[in-house]
């Protein structure tokens, strides 16, 4: 999927090396939920696809990988799944990854029959939580003091984006008079 | 009749599968992605699991349930638990849960324990008045031809200790 600003493409075998490199970056690792221990090369390769339904490399307009988005824990019986994304360490425009993530989320609603998609955000990542709220995400759970990082506890916030809300938000604000 | 927790061994997988695939026993962990099949059940049971027990009747060792501790985070000291028994022994569930909770807090140095329940089900921590409801995922779970809410509840080690002291 390509827009004027970002593109999504399926990960290729070579990308595993790139993504493993990202996972070794302290800041990215935190966003990727490798909070307490960086994965070894073998662990990363072994676990990379576990529970993943679909995923995509987010590229800038000039074809440079800047982020990664994934859908996981798909529950087709209940018509829900979870989604996450990470920003590459060399990316200097995180908003582009957000845009790519939004397109990825849009694709999930378009390509699958999900009613609801869940996103987990830790309390120290408040800008992402705010961005989710702006895009119709509803906070459904706060697991208090779930993460212990840098000497303090952080809450885990679980947001949901419903198909209804998503489609409503996508609809153009202006409509021609009947 | 009281129940006891017996560590599950690899050869117990088939009997656990029989129990979980019966019509009256649902287990969130095993069913989270749809009804399990025998090929997948071993992986489901073992994934992220630090303790897996069969719930047995004391004396004649009849298997009437299964429970586990999983998603243990040693640095955060959080862990999730799940427990189910056949309907005939539903009255024994709180005591069984209490055994597992005690095991988690005493033996695994867990700080906070999570559990989920669906729809009208009581929280596994219902016997602990200080447990917290931390969120309700609306219409998260397809059950009996309708969507029901998922409740996430938590019990801290401090609440558990206070309860244990009060009970004593």
Task: Walk me through the structure.
The complex is a heterodimer of chains A (about 180) and B (about 170). By secondary structure, chain A is α+β, with helices and mostly antiparallel strands. Chain A is built from 6 helices and 7 strands; from the N terminus they run βαααβββαβαββα. The longest helix of chain A has 18 residues. The model of chain A has no long low-confidence stretch (mean pLDDT about 85). Chain B has about 170 residues and is α+β, with helices and mostly antiparallel strands. In chain B, about 30% of the residues lie in helices and about 40% in strands. In chain B, strands 1-2-3-4-5-7-6 form a 7-stranded mixed beta sheet, sandwiched between helices. The longest helix of chain B has 15 residues. Chain B starts with a strand and ends with a helix. Chains A and B meet through strand 3 and strand 6 of A and strand 6 and strand 7 of B.
Q: What topology, given as strand order, has the largest sheet of chain A?
A: 1-2-3-4-5-7-6
| Spans of at least 5 consecutive residues with low confidence of chain B | none
Largest interface: A-B, 24 and 24 residues
Q: Output the radius of gyration of chain A.
A: 17 Å
Radius of gyration of chain B: 15 Å
End-to-end Cα distance of chain A, whole Å, is 33 Å
Our count of helices of chain B gives 5
Order of helices and strands of chain B: EHHHEEEHEEEH
The amount of helix of chain A comes to 25-40%
Mean pLDDT of chain A: 86
Structural class of chain B: alpha+beta
Number of strands of chain B: 7
Fraction in beta strands of chain A: 25-35%
The total beta strand count of chain A reads: 7
Say what oligomer this is: heterodimer
Shape of chain A: globular
Largest sheet of chain B: 7 strands, mixed
Our estimate of the beta-strand percent of chain B is 35-45%
Low-confidence stretches of chain A: none
């Amino acid at each position: 999927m390509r827009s004027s600003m970002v593109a999504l493409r399926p990960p290729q075998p070579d990308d595993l090396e790139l993504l493993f490199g990202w996972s070794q970056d302290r800041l990215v690792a935190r966003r990727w939920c490798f909070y307490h221990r960086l994965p070894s090369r073998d662990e990363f390769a072994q676990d990379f696809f576990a529970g993943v339904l679909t995923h995509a490399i987010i590229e800038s307009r000039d074809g440079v990988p800047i982020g990664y988005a994934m859908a996981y824990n798909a529950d087709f019986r209940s018509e829900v799944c979870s989604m996450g994304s990470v920003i590459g360490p060399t990316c200097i425009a995180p908003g582009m990854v957000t845009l790519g993530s939004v397109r990825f989320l849009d694709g999930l609603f378009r390509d699958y029959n999900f009613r609801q998609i869940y996103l987990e955000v830790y309390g120290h990542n408040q800008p992402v939580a705010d961005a989710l709220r702006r895009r119709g995400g509803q906070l459904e759970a706060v697991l208090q003091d779930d993460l212990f990082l840098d000497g303090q506890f952080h809450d885990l916030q679980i947001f949901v984006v419903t198909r209804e809300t998503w489609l409503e938000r996508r609809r153009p604000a202006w409509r021609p008079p009947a | 009749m009281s129940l006891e927790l017996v560590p599950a061994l690899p050869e117990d997988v088939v009997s656990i599968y029989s129990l979980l695939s019966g019509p009256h026993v649902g287990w969130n962990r095993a069913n989270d992605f749809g009804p399990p099949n025998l090929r997948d059940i071993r992986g489901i049971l073992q994934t992220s699991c630090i303790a897996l027990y069969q719930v047995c009747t004391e004396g004649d060792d009849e298997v009437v349930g299964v429970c586990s501790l999983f998603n243990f985070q040693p640095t955060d000291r959080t862990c999730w638990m799940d427990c189910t028994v056949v309907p005939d022994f539903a009255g024994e569930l709180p005591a069984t849960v209490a055994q597992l909770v005690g095991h988690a807090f005493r033996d695994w140095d867990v700080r906070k324990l999570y559990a989920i329940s669906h729809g009208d089900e009581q929280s596994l921590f219902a016997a602990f008045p200080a447990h917290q409801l931390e969120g309700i995922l609306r219409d998260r779970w397809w059950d009996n031809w309708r969507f029901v809410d998922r409740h996430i509840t938590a019990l801290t080690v401090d609440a558990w200790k206070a309860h244990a002291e009060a009970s004593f």
